[in-house]
Amino acid sequence: MKGRPALRDSAIAAAALIVVLAIPLVHRSPAFEDFVIRLSAMALFATSLNLLVGNTGMVSFGHGMFYGLGAYAFALTMQMTDLPLPVAAVLAVLVTTLAALCVGAICVRLSTDYFAFITLAFQMLFYSVVISWQSLTGGDQGLRGGIPRRQIFGFELGSQLHLYQFCAVVAVLGLLALRHISASPFGQTLRMIRDNENRASFLGVVLWRARLWAFTIAGAFAGLGGVLAALFVSGAYPELADWPNSGQAIFAVMLGGINSFLGPVLGAAILLALNDVVTRFTEYYGLVLGIVILAFALGFRRGVLDFFRLVWPRGLR
Amino acid sequence: MDLDALGACLTTPACLVTQTTSGLIVGMLLFLVAAGVTLIFGVLKVVNFAHGTFYMLGGYVAYTALGVTDSYAAAVLSATLAMALFGVVFERALISRVYGSNVLMQLLICYAVVLIFDDVVKIVWGPEFHAMGMPPAFQVPPLFIAGGVVPPFYAVLIGIAALIAIVLGLGLSMTRLGKTVRAAALNPQMVSALGVNTTLLFAIVFAVGGGLAGLAGALAAPVRSLSPGMGFSILIESFIVTVIGGMGSIAGALVSALLIGMVRGFGTIGFPQFTDGLIYIVMIAILLLRPQGLFGRSS
Fold first, then answer.
1. B141 located within any domain
2. Minimal-distance CA residue of chain A relative to B123
């Protein structure tokens, strides 16, 4: 099992990255580049959530907290210090990781139903702190004033093309790392816990420890997604940490396919596209999204990639 | 933090009465919502993330009904009945299709319902805040209890909620229906095998839960403003109530709702910036020390 799959995944990732980076050389389209930048943030967010939901069977409804925290930590570090961008990004991810560890330590021992809404409760606590700590976060107006544009390795992130390239690289590397984690023995352990926690426990797996690791790792990658989101909006907004964002990520995971690694990425892409189309026609995006979700939940019940895997078992992974 | 103010308030009868009443208001409204959440979870093992929507719609229905009929009693009654019906439709049309499948589907359906009805409220009543105002019958001079000011409506609200708590508690423990509901919470298959129509029972549970949330919305409308997002904040707090009280326990819901109400009532004096945080600290402490909640049975 070892060695070749990892090599294959890296090759796929490299090929995908080359394609994405080559597109602007052939054809410049600001709308497409915006879409990819937003997708890179959302894809990391949704895929990290799937490490919990799909891999481990932990339904977190509060994952948006770490997305928002990553964004705020990064934007604030950039505004308040002179640290280079990569250092600020790493710091932001570290802060998020630590927060996920603390929240996880309280939540991971709970049963599924409790877990879903205690994580939601923590997200809402974080959200209310963001809203009420006006002097630091700018309250419901969001953190404004922009993120100082600092060059990294000759990249000027004020330029859309460079931001596009940066986000694509970070997202692909992040997804590759998540893929590696989910294919590792640790990832297998998580799936074993999902399928039969008693048996996993008998085999000597310390359930809460494995779950806490999964929760912490997922939080870290959501934070990385938040960093990209902060770069895109050049600041941070409380909506990033609000509950509809968590629900959106859950739907992205389900829509793309919970049992396929790339499912959440596809789901995020479909949702972003839907958002772009619907908001052009109506301000009632929630109404349309809600109806789409109901149609999905009562009708299809299976994500797109999972569906393809079912009808074409030996093909897509 | 302002412990001096808190100490001063606790020793002044007037302040004590005022803050206790406002705490009771918060607690009783929370109880009405949380009782539905805990009942539905206890019997159906469904975490109803859409319960805040029932509360919100109850408030809006009451607002419109008051405008039409000019009678607050009719407004409360119509909100309660409308939301009981809404609960049944919600259960039959949506939730019953995903019983037994994983939590994700239930969560997704509730998420969709919350999104849809937040927008429906915006379309029907507009995105702005509405104030129902005090119903004419209650526009009378306030009561003075030990120097504290208590608007008569507050007393009525607390009385109604307390009555509901008693009826609900006695109904669950004394009546045949209540006993069936409790049995179904323990073992639905066995109850069904004994010839009880569990489909009907589940619909009744949702009707009661929805009706209570609608009632809470209607009672809250005169004292709070109506807005499309109002359901979600009370949903979170009612979850915290069920965690502290123990999932599935009505008595636990009452005690912990009152506890949170008091934390809110007196927290605004002692820790104005940190009232929310205080509630979460209580919740975390309970989760760590007694994960099944104050009144919950450990599994």
1. no
2. A284
